[in-house]
Write a structure and sequence with these properties.
Length: 107
């Protein structure tokens, strides 16, 4: 919402300089931090729960976030402004009440 608000308030053009304002909101991504949390999980099912929460049936890769940033910084993203890109494997639009209760529920 803040991305949209900044754009609407006119913070996108000043002194003949175009400001492109957007954000990237990643879902669960395979990173050192996530790997550490999974390794320290006492249940042994956390990684499976993360995967089950995503309709794509997996968690994201860092290069998928990077590819989004590269697109937005390229000529292909020149007309994008005031948007939030959810690179989350549809995690935010999947109804769930607990881990593992996404589109690929254990039940």
């Amino acid at each position: 919402m803040i991305t949209y608000s900044i754009t609407i308030l006119g913070g996108f053009y000043e002194n003949n300089i175009n400001f492109v304002i957007f954000s990237i909101s990643p879902g669960t991504i395979t990173t050192e931090m996530v790997n550490q949390v999974v390794a320290e999980d006492g249940t042994g099912t956390l990684l499976e729960d993360f995967i089950l929460m995503h309709p794509l049936g997996r968690i994201g890769k860092p290069e998928e976030i990077g590819a989004t940033a590269v697109f937005l910084a390229s000529d292909g993203g020149v007309f994008v402004n005031g948007a939030d890109f959810r690179v989350d494997g549809a995690l935010t639009i999947t109804p769930r009440t607990r881990p593992g209760a996404g589109s690929h529920s254990k039940e």
